[in-house]
Design a protein that fits this description.
The chain is mainly α and about 110 residues long. The protein has helices spanning about 5-25, 30-50, 55-75, 80-95, 100-105.
Length: about 110
């Protein structure tokens, strides 16, 4: 499997994930807008990786590392299926993004 669809689908999945959390917290003002912003950042990263934007590809490993760290914090607060899913998917994609050949291929249009 080529890495570009895998990485783009990961960021798209996380955007939908955070939009879903935002929809569940619609009544809370700051939480709702925070999750909308986080989901939009993931969606912009998915698009940037899809078109092969060099800066976005380089920054995607850092965003994935942040997802992994926040997923681990979420697991430590209380083990749940969404927390475990976020942590495991972030670890998998971070492992993929650490390969230099994958990043070179992601930078191709």
């Amino acid at each position: 499997m080529r890495p570009k669809p895998l990485v783009v689908s990961f960021f798209t999945f996380l955007a939908v994930f955070f939009y879903g959390i935002a929809a569940m917290s619609f009544g809370e003002r700051y939480t709702f807008f925070g999750y909308i912003i986080i989901g939009s950042v993931h969606l912009l990263f998915a698009y940037g990786i899809w078109v092969g934007h060099e800066t976005i590809v380089d920054l995607s490993a850092y965003i994935t590392l942040l997802d992994l760290l926040f997923g681990l914090l979420w697991v430590m607060v209380g083990l749940s299926l969404p927390a475990a899913t976020l942590t495991l998917l972030s670890a998998l994609i971070l492992f993929v993004l650490m390969d230099e050949d994958v990043r070179i291929e992601l930078k191709l249009p």
